[in-house]
Amino acid sequence: MVLARLAGSTRDADLLHLSLKEGDGEAWSTHGGVVALRLFTYWREAALRAVLARTGWRVEQVDQRAGLRGETWLVAAGVRRCER
Fold first, then answer.
1. Quick one: which of 13, 24, 53, 55 is 20 to 30 A from 4 by CA?
2. In CATH, what is the architecture of 2-80?
3. Neighbours of 75 (CB within 10 A)
């Protein structure tokens, strides 16, 4: 998993910031400024918090933000947990 690999390549107390679309499942999209077809995986806050904690991150904050097309984004901030 990408989050675990990222945690493994960062130092204790390094910061993480990510934003993901809120929802369930996956969907393909071509909207926005990127021409290529993109696959979005949607997330719920509880699942995101659990994955971050399991992969080596201490979740500091998760906010919901409105997107330009009526979608909701989860914006998360975390800190690489110290391994002691």
1. 24
2. 3-Layer(aba) Sandwich (3.40)
3. 13
- Rounded distance, CA 3 to CA 17, Å? 11
Nearest CA to 75 among 64, 59, 60? 64
CB neighbour list of residue 55: distance below 8 Å, 6 or more residues apart: 1, 3, 4, 7
Q: What share of the chain is helix, strand, coil (3-state, %, to 5)?
A: 20, 45, 35
CA 83 distance to own-chain centroid: 22
Burial of 49: CB neighbours in 10 Å, binned 0-12, 13-18, 19+: middle
* Domain ranges (residues) in the chain: 2-80
Residue position matching structure tokens 């919901």: 64
Say which DSSP state 3 is in.
Answer: H
Which pTM was predicted?
0.85
51-73 pLDDT, tens digit each: 999 999 999 999 999 999 899 99
